[in-house]
Design brief:
- By secondary structure, this protein is α/β, with parallel strands linked by helices.
- The protein has helices at 22-43, 63-75, 179-182, 266-274, 297-310, 334-347, 367-385, and strands spanning 2-7, 48-51, 81-83, 109-111, 118-121, 124-129, 153-159, 161-162, 174-175, 187-191, 197-198, 211-213, 229-235, 243-248, 253-260, 282-292, 313-323.
- The strands form 4 sheets. It has a 6-stranded mixed β-sheet with strand order 4-3-2-1-13-14, covered by helices on one side. A 6-stranded mixed β-sheet has the order 5-6-7-10-12-11, with no helix packed on it.
- The longest helix has 22 residues, at 22-43.
- It is elongated, with a radius of gyration of 27 Å.
- It starts with a strand and ends with a helix.
- Bound molecules: manganese (II) ion.
- The site of manganese (II) ion has 6 residues, from loops.
Length: 386
């Protein structure tokens, strides 16, 4: 029996742009989840860890990023680790794997830069398929010799695009859907896609497909399905389907939430955020839609503060909020009331756009801009009254 922990796409050094101060936390979480992964490998008695490429975001990542990773691999586990370069960190002349730090490692870490097979156990062979370019249209697994008799377990380690789901992802390094069968492999450990996927087309939990994407060990962005995992693969004997178990390694949760203010008052939305479990480990992308009564505009400001305080990061999309049809009585001066009326007419499309000021070429205000302006006007009036 052979038990392997399969992982890929650590994307260490990822910039996490657009997240402001949360970016540092997101980058640090990728190391924390690697610690989780190494602990799981020991707990579950994996005989080897297979890393199917893209450990690093690119070959130019900073030296502290590389030292952080190799330090962990060197010190935090004794389980043998087999690494291949992927298309983000290919084995080029300036490859991250050529830096001197790799030569100081203990012997349990092996970066495979050639297709030379190695022994995983007395009766098991590993066929690494390293990439030496960022782009390519060849199938890296064709370098694996087909099975020619022999009673050993055969495991492939490759990085590229297997079209498990049609129309998803890019075409770089296309890998045949039946590559494992063609090459006579008992298991093909794949990297490149960030979701955990088995070649039977579903999430890998309890699957028995011979080819599998482990997915990234830590989610990299909003909307990424089934990421933040590793897979534990158990191979009993040649020709028998592997047993595949999905293990959670990820630290942070990336969640999308939509709240319709036509269905629930903003006070309910605030309670939802206040009671959110593990908000301190969650990045939230919140979309608010529906009508916002003017007297609730102050509550929206409080909701923003609450979200920013409780969550690792919270991006609120307010572009689909529209002001309620009432509430202009808050405006106590004729000038403000006239402005609100004009904005309402614009927002409903009943009035043509506001002409640009003399000498300016600004486009006329769109209904969306008018809605947003009226909302801000309401917010300001209610804040001033409070
Ligand atoms: Mn990749």
């Amino acid at each position: 029996m052979l038990r392997l922990l399969h992982t890929a796409d650590w994307q260490m050094g990822m910039m996490a742009t657009g997240l402001g101060p949360a970016a540092a936390r997101v980058r640090a979480a990728r190391l924390d989840s690697l610690r989780n992964l190494l602990a799981l490998a020991a707990d579950r008695e994996a005989q080897a860890i297979l890393v199917a490429g893209d450990l690093f975001e690119d070959n130019q990542v900073g030296s502290t990023v590389v030292e952080g990773v190799v330090g962990l691999l060197n010190d935090a586990t004794r389980v043998p680790i087999h690494i291949i370069p992927g298309n983000h960190d290919p084995f080029t002349r300036d490859s991250v794997y050529r830096r001197p730090v790799w030569s100081q490692l203990r012997g349990h870490i092996k970066v495979h830069t050639t297709f030379e097979p190695v022994r995983l156990a007395a009766d098991a062979l590993l066929f690494p398929c390293p990439l030496d370019r960022k782009f390519g249209m060849d199938d890296p697994t064709t370098a694996i010799p087909v099975r020619n008799g022999g009673a050993e377990l055969r495991v492939g380690l490759a990085h590229g695009t297997m079209r498990i789901r049609p129309g998803v992802g890019d075409d770089y390094f296309p890998i045949a859907l039946d590559a494992a069968d063609r090459r006579g492999l008992d298991y093909l450990a794949l990297g490149h896609w960030h979701s955990t996927l088995a070649a039977d087309g579903v999430g890998a939990g309890a699957a028995s497909a011979r080819a599998c994407y482990s997915g990234t060990h830590e989610t990299t962005r909003f909307g990424e399905r089934d990421s933040g995992n590793a897979v534990l693969v158990t191979l009993n004997r040649p020709g028998e389907p592997p047993a595949i178990e999905t293990l959670r390694t990820g630290v942070l949760r990336w969640t999308d939430l939509e709240i319709d203010l036509d269905r629930q008052p903003i006070a309910d939305a605030a309670r939802t955020l206040r009671e959110w479990p593990e908000a301190e480990r969650t990045l939230l992308r919140l979309t608010l839609r529906g009508a916002l009564p003017p007297q609730a505009s102050a509550e929206l400001l409080a909701l923003r503060d609450l979200a920013r305080e409780r969550f690792v990061h919270c991006a609120i999309d307010e572009s689909q909020i529209r002001p309620a049809d009432t509430g202009d009585e808050i405006f106590t001066t004729p000038h403000l009331r006239q402005t609100a009326e004009a904005l309402r007419a614009l927002a409903s499309g009943a009035a043509p756009g506001i002409a640009p000021a003399p000498g300016q070429t600004a486009p006329a205000a769109s209904p969306e801009v008018a809605r947003r302006a009226l909302q801000i006007l309401h917010q300001a009036a209610w804040s001033a009254r409070a």
